[in-house]
Amino acid sequence: MISTDAVRNDFELNDSVYLMNHSAGRPLKQSSSNLSELFFEPWKTNEPWPQWLQALTGFQESLGLLLNSEATNFCPQTNVSSALTKIISSLPKREGRQQILLSEHDFPSVGFVASQAKKPGYGLKFLSRDADHTDPVVWGKAMSEDVQWVIITQAQSNTGVGIPVKEILDLAKKRQVITIVDVAQSVGVLPIDLQEWNADFVIGSCLKWLCGGPGAGFLYVNPEIISSCEPVDVGWFSHENPFEFDIHNFRYNSHAWRFFGGTPSVVPFILAAQSIRYLTKIGTTAVRNHNLALTQKLIDSLDSSYLVSPGLPAKRTGTVILHFGDQHETITARLKANDIAFDSRALGIRLSPHIYTTTNEMEKLVALINK
């Protein structure tokens, strides 16, 4: 059994009750020394790149262990937007399939990137805000014969709704729709098994539940589709042999690194690899169970009218969304005055306890709301 107190000793925490892990997880205390060892120390030598490249490989390996896939199926990315842009431009439109299916509850960046695909001739097809996004049948009906891509966001950031990814992926496969799963808000708190999913592409970020900081995104490519992908946004790190240095002879890397590009950043991936390894040892199931226990305690202790996000654990992500009706401004001001760290969206405030959040902290939150 995981000791919350022991875990708390490993993270940079302060006197506030930090419940914004949907935005940015807390850093490990060893992040600075680890960065110094793996980035700055090699930089002091004559040739740092061998160790820096090893750090990038280490990032891939950490994702492979966390998500149950081969390390070579992952390509480091700056963020989800970058990854999605590269994916959509990497495969040609198939005859009669010119639509991209996505949801009005997706993060805006996803819609912004998809809208740019109108330039080469794609159209956008949205599941409406009012549709039941947890019902695979709704997705199945929307996957008409003209849909080439479907983008599935596992955890909706502004509603706290969890989407049944595997069921939707199975429907898409039957309809020969290419699948992209966005796990930016779910990786690290919801169980993910890429072997079981068999998605074509998965994109994500290490900033939130993985506590890896900004700039460490990733792109997973199913090995069954990689040979068909020809990304447009390439660079020398996309090459089969980056150190060949023949300007007249570009050959795609045989693995996911064909989606890389030019000279990469290294710092974000050193930071993220360390936190991913740490949280993998704890296990996503343990993080999920701890989160569910704390959020259930919160839900059970409040007026049911406050709850905006799903009450059922199976439909819940790591985030609870609350709105306090006529008392909303009063209660949120009270929470801020007492060092409860949360943020607000259109539907209410977002609260996301992690593995280092304690029962006492949640009891403090409940007492302030019910005061």
UniProtKB/TrEMBL annotation:
It comes from the Bacteria. Keywords: Aminotransferase, Pyridoxal phosphate, Transferase. It holds the Pfam family Aminotran_5. GO terms for molecular function: transaminase activity. InterPro entries: Aminotrans_V_dom, PyrdxlP-dep_Trfase, PyrdxlP-dep_Trfase_major, PyrdxlP-dep_Trfase_small. The keyword Cytoplasm does not apply. Gene3D superfamilies: Aspartate Aminotransferase, domain 1, Type I PLP-dependent aspartate aminotransferase-like (Major domain). Residues 82-329 form the Aminotransferase class V domain. PANTHER family: CYSTEINE DESULFURASE (PTHR43586), ISOPENICILLIN N EPIMERASE (PTHR43586:SF4). This is Aminotransferase class V-fold PLP-dependent enzyme. It comes from Hufsiella arboris. The lineage of its organism: Bacteria, Pseudomonadati, Bacteroidota, Sphingobacteriia, Sphingobacteriales.
